[in-house]
Design a protein that fits this description.
The structure holds two protein chains of two kinds. Chain A has one domain: 3-Layer(aba) Sandwich (Rossmann fold), CATH 3.40.50. Helices cover 33% and strands 27% of the residues of chain A. In chain A, the strands form two sheets. Chain A has a six-stranded mixed sheet with strand order 6-7-8-3-9-10, with helices on both faces. Chain A has a four-stranded antiparallel sheet with strand order 2-1-4-5, covered by helices on one side. In chain A, helix 3 packs parallel to helix 5 and helix 5 runs parallel beside helix 6. The longest helix of chain A has 17 residues. The two termini of chain A are 25 Å apart. Chain B is elongated and about 80 Å long. Classes of the chains: A alpha/beta, B mainly alpha. The interface between A and B is medium-sized, with 16 and 18 residues.
């Protein structure tokens, strides 16, 4: 069932009629959502509601059982494996609850990693990484390993890493989930500032209404279904 | 009523005119409910009667605006006593929101629906507050956070209450578990 039409401005990332099952569990039950350029949309719901599954499907990490994910109006299932990998690496940025940084690398090496994996040479990649760390106020942590930083600092490093490829879509799954309120707020401010500067779309998964209130609108999900779709005012 | 102590707080460290106190109060404490001039002057008169503030100077001119108020040592002591005294926890249960949700849930209406309707309304307000906070200073953040956390608590409570009532209903349907 489509509960949101896809007319109006072209979306950057959209899912239409997505379903996904894990065994007997229905994680997504015919859910549709579209996020425009420069728009921040929160997927809000309790744990187990299917919001992370939706994020992973939109990001092309999980394959939905049925329905279609569109990136700039093109179905991503038409892309081959290597094209999809390239899309994820160049156009998508990811921020997770626990940063998912490489513990043995320094902050600057972690941030430069997506560019290095994409074949860029070390020096320009790290120059760009340092610049981003500066924007996020953690340049003095650039040479520290992840384990030597606080949760708030490493989450800023994770944001820098998500931004380094200048993605058009940032997927953030509970980005403040492991932080105290003040650090969570700083991370949200930085994430949104960075996204808006680049007109990147943000798909924000959260179970906290206070964090969802940072978004332009929210999509409330329960049991894999969309229950409420706020409109932009 | 916290007005008298807020005024003492605004006077601590600096003497001020009555109208200045009203402006500061509205700016920092009364965003949604500005205080009336008359209330400020009546409160200042009472504080003066009780020896907690004094008039430092009266400038030539008409009207009560020309008086400069200053806090007395007794006023500082009273302010300090007030600050460390724990606030009586409010009777939150008496709100209209509580009554509405309780009636809805106990009458067998689905919690999810009640939650969705309330969350939609709460989120509109929460988004306004978040924007105001991000654009404002530390005082704005303080004011907005206070409301934001209370609104979030409302939503969490509705969610939990719904789950509890559903659980209770399931138990009753199965003959109770004692």
């Amino acid at each position: 069932m489509t509960m949101h039409s896809l007319d109006g401005p072209t979306s950057v990332i959209a899912g239409e009629d997505l379903t996904k099952r894990f065994g007997a569990t229905v994680a997504l039950d015919g859910l549709s959502v579209a996020v425009g350029r420069g728009e921040v949309v929160a997927l809000l719901g309790p744990s187990g509601s299917g919001k992370s599954t939706l994020l992973l499907c939109l990001a092309g990490v999980l394959q939905p059982d049925s329905g279609t994910v569109f990136y700039q109006d093109r179905p991503i299932k038409d892309l081959g494996d290597s094209a999809l990998t390239r899309l994820r690496r160049r156009e998508f940025g990811f921020v997770f609850q626990f940063g998912q940084l490489v513990p043995d690398l320094t902050a600057v090496e972690n941030v430069a990693l997506p560019l290095r994996l994409d074949g860029h040479s070390r020096r320009p990649a790290e120059t760009k990484a340092l610049e981003l760390l500066g924007r996020l106020g953690v340049e003095d942590r650039a040479r520290l390993r992840v384990g030597e930083m606080s949760g708030g600092q490493s989450q800023r490093v994770a944001i820098a890493r998500a931004l380094i490829s200048e993605p058009t879509v940032i997927f953030a799954d509970e980005p403040t989930g492991s932080l105290d309120s003040l650090n969570g707020e700083l991370v949200m401010d930085l994430l949104l500032m960075a996204a808006r500067e680049r007109s990147a779309a943000v798909v924000l998964v959260t179970h906290e209404a206070r964090i969802a209130a940072y978004a332009d609108r929210e999509v409330v999900i329960r049991d894999g279904c969309l229950t409420h779709y706020s409109t932009v005012t | 009523m916290a007005l008298s102590h807020v005024l003492l707080g605004l006077l601590e460290g600096r003497q001020r005119y009555g109208y200045e106190l009203k402006q500061l109060y509205d700016e920092r404490f009364g965003a949604s409910q500005p205080v009336k001039f008359g209330q400020v002057y009546a409160t200042l008169a009472r504080l003066r009667r009780d020896g907690l503030v004094d008039i430092a100077a009266v400038e030539s001119g008409d009207g009560p605006d020309r008086k400069v108020y200053v806090i007395t040592p007794e006023g500082v002591a009273d302010l300090e006593r007030w600050i460390v005294e724990p606030q009586q926890p409010a009777a939150f249960g008496r709100t209209a929101l509580f009554s509405k949700v309780a009636v809805a849930l106990l009458s067998g209406r689905p919690a999810a629906e009640v939650l969705d309707i309330q969350r939609a309304a709460h989120l509109v307000r929460m988004r306004e507050l978040t924007e105001r906070k991000r654009a404002g200073d530390a005082m704005d953040a303080l004011v907005c956070d206070y409301e934001l956390f209370h609104l979030e608590a409302d939503l969490r409570w509705i969610e939990l209450a719904g789950a509890r009532v559903d659980h209770l209903r399931t138990e009753l349907a199965h003959g109770g578990t004692r």
